[in-house]
Amino acid sequence: MRTFLRSTVLIAAAIAVFGCNPKDQPRAAPAGDAAPVASATPATADTRLEACRLKMAKPEKHEWTTYWDPGSAAEASDGPSAVHSIYWANAEEKASLKRSKSAIPLDIHCSSNTGKEIAISLSAFSSTEKDVPLAPGTYSIVGKQHGEVGPGQFLAGALLFNKRMFDATGGTLKIDDFDASGVRGSFTIDGKEILAGGAPLRLEGTFEIPCSGGMLESECKANKRVARRE
Fold first, then answer.
1. 15 in a domain, yes or no?
2. pTM for the model
3. 3-class DSSP assignment, residue 15
4. How many domains in the chain?
5. Burial profile 157-176: b = 16 or more Cβ within 10 angstroms, e = fewer
6. What pLDDT shows up at residue 88?
7. Can you list the positions of beta strands (E) in 59-136?
8. Which letter does DSSP use for residue 126 in this model?
């Protein structure tokens, strides 16, 4: 009787271990088929900030958003959109800029290679700090064929669209906010294509770009944690 009971217990145990529904049992992964391990390094976040919003009416209807790259300061290079000003330099840097005739009150760049390329530069290179003060203001935009660029005027030095070159025939730059941290404003530009039939250009845009705080901008008061990715 004792032998019978022992046999019954062993049979019941075997049924419990091997006779259950396979779906209820964990299945060991075959060799070489281990579950994927999550990467310990997260994907790099996009730290760029919106810089310029551009809208073209002629020669084609098109819109762009361009970006300012905070890493450009640490790399001592401009990103796709950037601004520079003698106002963001310290006394020693200002003296150096004036000696090299690079003491520009404001220089604005907006560019994008997404879809059809666009590149714009607006520079008050013939102006002094008196002509373009660190304050809101409205200024005329002129092209390279305008002749001598006067004080208080911004030259559209680069005006490129989809590998086509244009020259400004007129325009207005409006600065809403210009201080030790950056610049914000808007512009409209009329122009015509160079060396290709004179197709008309009509472009308008807004910009809000901080100073980088990089080379020759030691007095930049923009958020250094953002500007240097610290």
1. no
2. 0.76
3. helix
4. 1
5. bbbebeebebbbbebebebe
6. 96
7. 62-68, 82-84, 107-112, 118-123
8. T
